[in-house]
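Section: Multi-chain targets

For targets with more than one molecule, the full set of components is provided together so that the structure can be written out for the assembly as a whole rather than chain by chain. Components appear in the order listed by the source. The example entry contains two components.
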Amino acid sequence: MVDGIPFVGGSINDINPDDIANLEILKDGSATAIYGSRGASGVILITTKRGKSGKAQMSYNAYYGIGNRIASYNLFNGTEYAAFKQAAQLGNSVNPGTTVYGLTTAEQAGLANGTNTDWQKLIFRQGSTTDHELSLSGGSDATQFSLSGGYHKDMGIVYGQSFERFTIRSTIDHQINKRLKVGLNSLQSLGYTNGANRFPVGGAVRLSPLVSAYNADGSVNLLPLVGSLDAATVNPLTIRDPLTNLDRSRRLSTFNSLYGEVNIIDGLKYRANIGLIYNQIMGGAYTGPNTFYNNATSYAQSSESVNNSENWSYTIENLLIYDKTIAQKHHITFTGLYSVEKDHSQSSSMSGVGIPADYLQNYNLAQAATATVGNGGFGERGLQSYMGRINYVFSGKYSLTGTVRTDGTSVFPSKKYFTYPALAAAWNIDREGFMRGLPVISTLKLRGGWSKTSNQSVGNYSSLGLLSSNFYNYGTTTANGYYVSTLANQNLTWEFTNSIDIGLDFGILNNRITGTIDVYDQRTSDILQQVNLPPSNGASSVFENLGKTKGQGLEISLSSINIQSKSGFNWSTDYNMSFNRNAIVELHEGLQSDIGNNWFVGQPFNVIYDLKKIGIWQTSEASQAAVYGQLPGQIKIQDVNNDGKINSSDLQILGSFQPKFTAGLTNRFSYKGIDLSIVSFARIGQMVVAPYLSADGTAQGYPFFGNGRVNQWKVNYWTPTNPTNDFPRPDASADKQIYASTLSYQDGSFIKVRSINLGYNLPATFLKRTGINGLRVYVTCTNPFIIYSPLVRSGLGIDPEGNGYGGIVASTANSTVPTAGGNAGSRVITTNINNPSTRNFQVGVNVKF
Amino acid sequence: MKLINKIFILFAGTASLSMATGCKKLLVEDQKTAITQQFFNSPVGVVGGITGVYGTLRGLWGTEGFTNQTVAGTDETLAGGSASGIQTFTYANIASNTDDYKFIFQVAYQDINTLNGVLQYGSTALTDPTQRAQYLAQAKFLRAFLYYYLVINFGDVPLHTTYIADVTTSDSRAPIADVYKQIIQDLTDASADLQNTPTAPFTGKAATKATAYYLLGRAYLTRGWSKAAQTTDFASAVTAFNTLIANKATYGVDMWQDYGDSFKPGNEYGKETLMVIDESSDVKYGNYAAGGSGGSYNSTNYFFRPNYPSMTANYPASTGANMMTRDIANGRPFIRIRPNTNYLTTVFAERTNDSRFDKSFQTAWIANTASVSTPRGALTVGVDTAIWMPPFEVTAARRAAFKGVILTPTGANGGNAYTPVFFPSMRKYDDPNRAGVNDPSTRPFIMYRFSDVYLLAAEAYFKANDLPNAAAMINIVRSRAAYRTTNTVAQNTAAVAAVQILPSQVTLDFILDERSRELYEECTRWWDLVRTQSLGRRLQQYNTEAYPAYSASNPADAFSLRPIPVTEINLVTSGPKFPQNPGY
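Its structure, encoded as tokens over all components, is:
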């Protein structure tokens, strides 16, 4: 919510952080109740800066920063790669001793002369960030205004990736008369993103380190893999050329919120909020031939595309607010709301093949030999809401809040409306008389609430069971085809959650130590799910309200001022820790497990359910391995039921993506004008999947992992002379190692230092004569180091924090991977080889005039 | 000032009121990008549903995983150096990889449900009786076609003949006898109602009467071999095939005079083709994209190729220049499937009077790269043969006199043998008309050829103990195989005479060998061996790569049925558990 208006279709990139006055996160049901179903998963409230009456004030904020990869991916070097290929040849399980992936003539020469090309160095660069913001605000008693303009530029660490944003914002608030007040906040943003669809990393890390990126004469070695199966691969140095590699999108967005307030009688107020968001994206791409992204050799296969989309959304809210204190002890607030919201999106795209010259790029698709129209997109969704809330506070000690809200949505075909109540109570214990005897306790507040929240988060038209379409030719006659792939569900309706939460806020020793403890219990029913259906019944999936889950948690936060010395030295610490547990309570038809959807009663929604690797078959175990049709050097799986077969009855739950706990620690130091803060963060006990340590013979995982065709992660692989239990023997015959999915599950626990910030506020005395009211300079380092990570320590990854959901290899014995929402793999937290996290250093200045 | 207040309140009131009236519309879903199921209730929708089914078949025939499942793990093929889905070739660990066989299961049932919808709505949506009969016959043909492939892959399978529009999470397997009964019923109806020749809107080489009779005969023949056999099956198969042969002029189908013309690019819609899964170079309708591979592209032009561009001038040493450059004529090497050398040279022992080996395989690669020299001399582009892989052994002297590199089946006389990377290239799926060397095929995938009618008829006669007619049918195919355009009339006549066989020569193995000679690697072999209950025997005889794991199954020959996909077993969550096939 930005200034009270849902930020539908908005991007966080549309907002200049300098324009934000306050950012608040609401989690408990009673607090989110007023925001309705949109707030089912919590609410982030962003309040932007507005003008204040008084002398006009100008400020200028700027920073510049550089960023580098936190580490290189740990791949085989030249000689290791040659040895690995040799091992794959010897390990060929079908035609022993043979390989199709032998060293090319160039690689043999490279091995002889010690070539060891680090392709990562060629595609990565040092990134940089530039940011400027100038703002002016002020006003009279009746009218306040603020104006600001910002510029931001990010040069990504991958050649070809960058982001640039221009923002202009203005706010005005005006008191027309005693009864009427109006205001406007208008935020315009223009952003250019380059290279958002360019992912060179996965391809570049596969390249042989034994060949040089440059020819002897210094020119680019265009086809470094010539003579191999991948001879057509073009040198990734070509990604640096912006002419032949265009991928640019322009986003123009405008966010406006207008309000009017009328004081009808004393304590009764009517307020109208009107929000309008509109954004338009125009994007497109071009790749010329003989480039890394397009290895075709002629302009007949140059490729280009353009796409356009618009989104708009409006919100109209009518609020009636009554606020009255009776007899000085009874404070009553009533809020009534009626609102409507409509969201709209529309898109079109076109692509072409065969542009005769690079300089045309994607500007004129009529120049393409063939142009293809992409799918058009259209979606509209409406939401209608009524809400009433009453809050009663007695004597500043006891507070009671009741809320009832009804939401109606267009996405459900017949059961459109849902009504949900919420109750909350609070007791400010510290204001009780009996507390006067306990001066050590300065704040004590007990809070509690019960609420029902609901969720409508399925895509538009999910219940309609629309036909899939395809295109066919009967000889020279073309025809459009349709087939049934999903089923309609007339009964699709709201998912809802009942939650109870109890919290305690406390402060002792004059609030030198303050803290909050929260416990909650949530029960969710009628969960909206895309459910996979047995293939033999035709349609593959349907959206349904299915099953029940529970969530329980304990969240603790503590703040302490450790040192507050007269010399001006201060040290304070913020600490927080959360324990959250989610589990499925009930599945459809009373099932205890639904393996086809990867759901198990008593387990979190997303678990890893697979065979368990217990080592590698050793040479001495050849006869035991043969029982399972395996050879020494292959992955040894736990045969749970000891039936001499590895199949679906040997599957087990190997872990989940739910941390045991998360924690944060921030230390702040200050001395006179100098301040230093260190933010660290921990997440312990969850799994993460490293897809690049597995392959399944398709595009999932890391294609050709373990067969010697391409370079890969440097793993400790089995050979007859290296009887490890880590990774199986390379096998040149297979495009996937058997049971490869079991290699990718890793411990995702970590403790990281997120940032270190050092600032200096120049003393006012020093600034006196300059006319500057305040000047602060600072340096910041983000991602300075990882304190603890089993994944990093094992050498099998550089960052344990997941950076995506895709790419996982499905279990050999169980076709599914952990899902929620029915899309295979969509909820598996993976840490993959793509853009690595960066370590950034920034220098900044804040000036107030 | 008071006026402002009034205007403000009036404005707010009007806004609220107009919101209230607009709200009914606000909560109605009105999608604008997809077709709804009600569409089947119109003539265009019926054609659209049938077209949708034809379109999804592209996701099977011509794709990598499915192509493996039609020819790998048989006597004809071995795994190429870059084979995918290796367990389909070797049967090793096949028992755990049950989802690898889900593609046809998924596509077939999705299509069957769509066809059941078409049949249900179409009977009322179509008012013209002729049109109704013809369109619904397409749907029945396709339903039978899909059930046929389900039953020969998986055995007992769920049998649905009505449209499923509501969610069900239970299902069970019908005995193959019931499935065959439905197939034969649908094909009998389709053979009565389909058009004689492809007619709009189902032009090109969509199903016709001829296709229905072919598949009807094949279904009878397959059931005749099975445990659900009826005593009349082989006779019924003969009748279906003979009806087709007797009416071939009416249906516009026949064999080409030259065996090579039957799969020649440009002849896909010709007289020998009974049905195609259609493809073209149209980027929207033709399942084609420059550089496309994987997905549903017809990539049969890649799979059977050796890695000719990696052949080095000093072979077997990997030094010297690469002798060949990848080009359109020689194709994109995927090295997935290679002929089983031992079997290849056995069935094609006769290559003088029988032209089929020469027309089915590419064995010579003409130099296409400048400045390549072997130790035996410099190669002239377009003139010299850079790589030659004859199906016979050569002497050391001949090798020494040959500038290029020679590979032979066993590498006798100190030579080099075929390898998993270098082997004769099956050329029936070649597509010289693509724009780029890495492009998928723009050619329709030929499902059935007319010569197979004679071979299947021969098999039916053989099973009915009518060897003279079996031999007569085989001789029709062999006589055509003898023909070469380069021969004189007298030479052709002599060749035809030389290849004739006698009724006493007809055995099951002879029929299977003849099928290989005619249909080598044409994406039907695995089912042929399974139908004739010969898979284990032929693997033992010819395929040492596959037989050890195949023969280890418990019970024996369990791997001559594909496993039920684990996806299906897992997702049947109500009612009785969905049973797996034995051995998996």
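Chain B touches chain A through 130 residues (CB under 8 Å).
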